[in-house]
Amino acid sequence: MNNTAAPVDRLAGLLERFRLRAHLFHQGPLCGVTHFDAKPGRGFLHVLRAGEMVLTHQPRTRGVARRLAVREPTLLFYPRPLAHDFHNAPAEGCDFVCASLDWEGGEQHPLARALPALVVVPLARVPMLGQTLELLFAETRQLLCGQRLVADRLFEVLVLQLLRWLLDHPAECGLPAGLLTGLAHPKLARALVALHDAPAQAWNLDAMARVAGMSRSAFAACFREQVGEPPAEYLMRWRIALFQQLLRAGQPVKTASLAVGYSPNALTRAFTAEVGMPPRAWLASLGSEG
Q1: CATH 1.10.10.60 intervals, the chain
Q2: Considering only CA atoms, which of 226, 194, 224, 223 is closest in space to residue 207?
Q3: Burial (CB count <10 Å: 0-12, 13-18, 19+), residue 219
Q4: Cys-Cys crosslink for 73: which of 86, 105, 123, 249, Cβ 3.0 to 4.6 Å?
Q5: In terms of Cα–Cα distance, which of 61, 56, 54, 58 is closest to 80?
Q6: Per the confidence metrics, is the pTM higher than 0.85?
Q7: Cβ atoms of 278 and 251 closer than 8 Å
Q8: Which CATH number describes the domain made up of 12-173?
Q9: Could you tell me the maximum CA-CA distance found in the chain, to the nearest angstrom?
Q10: Mapping DSSP to helix (H, G, I), strand (E, B) and coil, where does residue 204 land?
């Protein structure tokens, strides 16, 4: 087995197929109580630059404290919709930059699903964010041409850099078993990236294990432990997610099915079992939601 293989890019394939858009909506102090609503497909990234505050959550969410005190410059990352409130002392205030996050595919975006409901990281623990934050703060100090566009892109860079850090520090962040913990595993990452890059390939357990450089049985056991589901089930969900993206982009069912490695009939059966309705009915439901 090859132990000197070149490293793989664990995030490019995911973010190229399922894009993320950030939108700056606040810079400066916040005083009193500020409420942030939960909206479908919407996340948030807040950067506390100075001051202290208390963060509260109304609905009970597994793994998220009802009340959290933040006393140092900190990044607060909400990958999925979760209503929250900032409580700031009116006399002191806190200095923030805040962006909303729109994941392509909404809450079904593979990374949005894999992340904890809230990631709280003191900035001092992630030195790789330093230069990006300096640029972001410089852009938000004064009104400049194209300021919002630059700030939006810098927030997207922040998310990417934070994801890199999470992959390198999965235990520190309490990542649940799933895609990110799989990508954090050096051998499983090779197989996952291969599945992401070539979903239509005729994958079986032997082929996946070969890419990972593991025996068939060791790969199957490790994959289930780290990712939380068997390899074949993960591949099926990945293919269906890609298929949904292709349908949103206007591709016919037959073309999209073949692009992800299924015949139209096999795809319809798998899709209906996973989503609860056939592909065309699901696509029609998107129009009714709009």
Answers
A1: 185-289
A2: 194
A3: buried
A4: 123
A5: 61
A6: yes
A7: no
A8: 2.60.120
A9: 64
A10: coil
pLDDT at residue 2, as a whole number: 47
Alpha-carbon span 148 to 161, nearest angstrom: 20
pLDDT mean values, one per 10 residues, the chain (290 residues):
66 90 89 88 92 87 89 94 85 81 84 90 92 90 81 95 91 84 95 96 97 97 96 95 92 94 94 94 78
- Contact indicator for 64, 85 with CB cutoff of 8 Å: no
Q: Please list the alpha-helical segments (H only) found in 82-146.
A: 110-114, 130-141
Handedness of CA 170, 171, 172, 178 (dihedral sign): positive
- Tokens at 152, concatenated: 């939006």
Stretch(es) of the chain classified as CATH 2.60.120: 12-173
Calculated CA dihedral for residues 196, 198, 202, 208, nearest 10 degrees: -50
Structure tokens, 113: 């699903």
The pLDDT, as a whole number, for residue 72 is 93
Q: Which residues pair with 99 in a beta bridge?
A: 24, 45
Gap between the terminal Cα atoms of the chain: 51
